[in-house]
Amino acid sequence: MHIKRIVIQGFKTYKNTTTIDDLSPAHNVVVGRNGSGKSNFFAAIRFVLSDQYTRMTKEERQGLIHEGSGTVLSAFVEIVFENSDGRFPTGKDEVVIRRTIGLKKDDYSLDYKSSTRTDVMQLLESAGFSKSNPYYIVPQGRITALTNAKDQERLNLLKEVAGAKVFENKLKESQKEMTRTKVQRDKVDEMLEFIQERLADLDSEKDELKKFQDLERDKKIYEFILYDHDLDDITTSIDEIDSEYQNAVENSHKFVENLEKREALVLQLNKSIDSAKHKQKLLSIDYDQQNSIVNDITKKLYRKTAELSEAKELFASEQKTIKTATKAIDQIRSKIQDTKNSIASKKPEVEQLKSLEKQLRLEISQAKTKQNLLYSKQGRYSMFNNKSDRNSWIESQMNQLKTDKSMKESLIATTESELSNLKQELSTVVDQIHDIQDSINGPTAQAEILEIEEKIASLRDQYSRENDQRKALWREENRCKTILDSLREDLNKAERQVGQTMDRQLANGLQAIKRITARLGLTGVYGALGELIQVNQKYRTAVEVIAGNSLFHVIVDNDDTATTLMNELIREKAGRVTFIPLNRLQVKDQVYPDSNDCVPLIKKIGFNPEIEAAVKQTFGKTIVTIDLERGYELSREFKLNAITLDGDKADRKGVLTGGYYDFRKSRMEAMKTRQEKSNEFSSQEVELLKIKSSIDKKGQEILRISNELTALHSSYDELVSSKNSFKSTLSNKLNEKFKLEESLKLLEQQITQNRALVVTLETKLDDFERELASDFEEDLSIEEKNELELLNKTLSQLDTKLNSTIDDILVRDSELTKLTLELGENLEPRLQELLKRQEQKDSVTNGGLINKLEQEVAMYHEELANAESSLIEVRTKSEGNNAELKKFHEELTAADAQQRKLIKTLENFQRNSEKYMSKRQILTKRREDIQAKIRQLGTLPDAAFNQDDEFDVDELLRKLAVVTKGLEKFSHVNRKALEQYMNFTKQRDSLVERRKELDKSEKSIMDLMDHLSERKNDAIEKTFNKVSVSFSEVFEKLVPKGVGHLIMQRHNKDTASSQYDDYENDIGHEDDESSIDNYSGVSIQVSFNSKNDEQQRIEQLSGGQKSLCAIALILAIQKSDPAPFYLFDEVDANLDTQYRTAVADMIHELSANAQFICTTFRPEMLQVANKFYGVMFNNKISSVSEITQSEAMGFIEGQQQQRQ
Question: What is the per-residue pLDDT for 1071?
Answer without folding.
Answer: 43
